User: Fold this.
Amino acid sequence: MKRNFWIILLLFISGSCLKEPDSIGYKVNLTVRFGPNFPQESKEGLRVTLSNQTKGYVLEAYTDANGRVDFSSIEPGFYRSAVTYSYPEKDFLHYYNGLKSIEVFSDITDSIHLNYSKSGDFIIKEYYYSGSTTPMGKPYSADQYIEIINNTNEMHYADGISVVEHESYGSGVNFWAGLKDTIVARMIWTIPGNGNQVPVLPGESIVLARTAINHRDDPNGNPLSPVNLGDADFEFYVSKQPESDLDVPGVPNLIEDLFVFRGADVAFHVKGGSALALVKIPGKNETERKEYLRKHMAPKESGAGTKTTYFAKIANTCVLDAVEVVFDEAHAIYKRFPPELDAGYTYVLAGSGSGKCIRRKTREVVAGRIFYQDTNNSSEDFLKDVDPRPKNR
Amino acid sequence: MNRYFVAGIFLLIGHLTGAAGQDGLKQYNLLTFRQIEAESPWLQTNNAAGLSQMPELFPAQFGVGTDLTGGNFHSVFEGQSRRTYQFSTQSFRKINQLYLYGSFRYDKSTENEVNFANTNDPVFNNPYLLTDTLGNDTYNREFFNLQGSLSSPVNTRLDWGIGFGYRVGVASQNRDPRALNKVSNLDFAPGLVYKGDCFKLGASLRYGYYNEDIDLLVVNENRLVTSFQLLGLGHSEYHVSSSFFRLYQQQQVGGSMQVEWRSGNVSNLLHSAYNYSVQTIDDGRKGSVATWAVTKNDSRLDGRELILNDVISIHKKATIHQIKLMFRMDNKLGTEFIQRLEKVNEADLEQWVTYGKVQKYYSLRTEAGLNYQLISNDERSLMKSLFNASANYEAFSENYYLPDHDQFFSNLTVAGSWLKLYVLKRSSLSAEVNLTYRFNLRFRQNLEEDNVIVQKIIKPEFNYQTKSYLAPAFSLGYQVPLKKAFYKYFLKANFEWRRSVDQTERTMAGLSTGLIF
Assistant:
């Protein structure tokens, strides 16, 4: 009788427990497709990452001689797998990037194609788009800027280089994803000159300011702005409504080659929708560039089909550098640039009005000069939420 | 205005259930409520019909008080210091054959230097907590708590009873991102007790509903902050926004059974209870300032709780020896929703689309305890001293699956206390000393990740839970009768000091005053 009581009691206690989860882990087997020109000796030991898009953690594995990597015990979810390989040749760094979105809800066998890319002469070093907040708590974004640096050992001319904003803000599927080897722009601004007028020494940079004033001190500025852009090299200026956009004397204006939704001022999306690229559009001068663009326009109908808007198509071969800036992790699925231009994405975690920016990481410092990392993977190349320091000042 | 209206209603209820009641025969003292608690194992069973089994003591009490807690030995979810003001009233009463208990309590507290918690009661909602990493917040809380139960005989063999509890309040923080928590908790428990010649059988049911609505707001314009939705053992999701909403809803059902056997001066009460709960956690954000604004299912937490208690009481003239064996098992299973933000229709509206639900979290808390207490009563059967000695074992294991993380710890807490009432010429004085020592028996922590949540929350909290400490405490009470009334005025002060093995400390002090009758 007593024994039965204890047996019943034990059964009751053990039956009261919830069952431990059956931990279902999946296998993800990936094969890296290297392409014909990839150095044979480098195929083994390539680092492949698998990033969980929801939780942000990253797993890594290394390829065998056949380019295979096996991840095991992977929780179900949405992942992004990336491969980056680089090697130097003379003054250039050559890059291979591969990127793949993977949905893991069963065992997966897939492949990643590596795309060749070359580090450009000019790269975007710093991009400040989040804006700041005034003492009255109002948003202030006139202090946005882009800093471009000559990351090589030779002097290069910056005139003729354009800053391009992608057509999509990355809030939905990229309408132009079907266009091969091409990006589509809504805004193009070009550094003026004939190609020999804006020399940039190795390691030097130029700042393209939305408004080239000392934002902290200027009466038109914001005392809480983190930047002084009084010594910016160029300025975005829209002549549509002079009272709406300050044209700072002494600071040359960028050339407006394309501004589809032309407003009274240039503004990059403070929440991070503006993905940027540096491009060299064919043409020796403004007229030739615009003629090229005129011939490469792409139509897009509005949702209701009542209006057609034209944007500019730019071949990937024209792109010197691209930075995929997204709103946040949840919107990273709407990535716009292909992996050969940017295999990753980045954003200011602190959000709009935070006064923070993204800055390229330092690759190495040689004799006091900083070389910045450019693997064509913004997830790897950029620091998030840093204080803006145009020209390191 | 509403606050005072509600307080007034609750006060009235508290008063009707007992504050007017006074049998006039017994001059209840400072220890009477402690005596009822100590002598009435039935009152600890959650079976409201057990109210009829209590000793014939019907005190009432009004009181106001304040507590102050401070020091650096605390959970990561607690602030460095906390001050609480409370007003409370409680009473036992008997009208003919109807036993009544009612209590009302109002608490207002300010907790300073809170660093991570945006959930009102992090222990309750573990592991699915809402946190941010901007510290030095102040949490202001205001809560009303109403409890009541009544019991009466159906016939000579059967008693019935019903109990309810309602707690409602708000908590708010003063710095961005500032959480506004609206919390309500409802409990409802009917029960029966069958009385045989030398035994009693009891059974009760329980339904509970808990709701916590968190409105996380950034007041500074055009500023976004990051909030973390913890998933357990260092895993989390995060969102950057100027607003974030979270809704916890929990339904709980359960039942309990009691068997009491009595022979002469010896009685034994065996009590078991089983509760099952389902908690769902949903998130959302405001549209105009967020990059997404639709409701997102975050997770679900299933819980099972088993309680087994056995109380042996031996009555010897004016003394009662009581040995209590306790066992409790609390088991939780967490499920995550795998969702992705997608545009799902022609209007381009975004929705979180569910791709699956995965069980990811499992925890088991086991507690076992042995308690001995010796109650000494005076010639009027009012308690004059209480000795208590206890040893409690606690083990807690947590697992997160894929990537696998786990942690485990077990602690043993031993405590002893001595409470004594000194009767003076007109007044009386009570003194209690208490010594508690908790020491860690074993711990293990396997965490692969070393992110900010692990560094700032998981490891420090684990360290706090496993740290050994010594806690001496004492309290003093003074009571004096009022002229021309049955009321007795009392003043109580209590003090506790905890010191851990790594020299961190926590001090708790309290002062209360009121009337007992």
In short: Chain B touches chain A through 49 residues (CB under 8 Å). The helical segments of chain B are 2-19, 32-39, 122-125, 452-466. The CA atoms of residues 73 and 503 of chain B lie 9 Å apart. Chain B has a mean pLDDT of 89.
